[in-house]
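Forum > Structural Biology > Help requests

Title: Can anyone predict the 3D structure of Glutathione S-transferase family protein?

Hi all, first post here. I have the sequence for Glutathione S-transferase family protein but no way to get a structure on my laptop. I'd be grateful if someone could post the structure tokens.
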Amino acid sequence: MKLHWSPRSPFVRKVMVAAHELGLADRIDCLRTVVRMTQPNLDLLPDNPLSKIPTLVLADGSVLIDSVVICEYLDSLAGGGILFPPSGPERWQALARHALGNGLLDILILWRNERDKPEQRQSPELHDSFAVKTRTTLDRLEADAADLDATRYGIGHIAIGCCLSYLDFRFADLGWRDGHPLLAGWHESFRARPSARATEAVDA
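Reply #1:
Sure, ran it for you. Structure tokens for Glutathione S-transferase family protein below:
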């Protein structure tokens, strides 16, 4: 399998954390792929017309896009039902947690793009909106932190862990741990997992 990959992308990191958790990392060939919102990657377009990563190319040439789709495919290769509960309330809880972590990542990517603009082109309204959504999501995750510890590790934990790590990577100035001690403690346990240590973001 070939994965269009970047050491900076939190969405790619989700896939690699999942691959390590499932014992499949050595079956993936990572191809360094640079993507930008303002300029499609012409080399990536034949595999993914959206020019987005992660993109997984299978041995038969078929292509999977979107991190959660790729993660569930990897879960199926490992036997299924490992990171994605097969049915019932546990599945919906895992997917809901994934959606919350992934949704906050979407917001943070947009916020970073806004912060990188020349100051005179930035929108105070957007900054305020992103800040409110980030703070309220962290508050929700703080309320859920004890239950995160009590439930089986899965795709929701991976998404939330990668999101919090991205806050450290790109938004260290926010000090997200202030007021969120339970979530901060849970994140330390995420960071200690071998899969997280093997996939830490690198600005290269």
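The longest strand covers residues 2-5. Residues 177 and 184 are 6 Å apart (CA to CA).
Shout if anything looks off.
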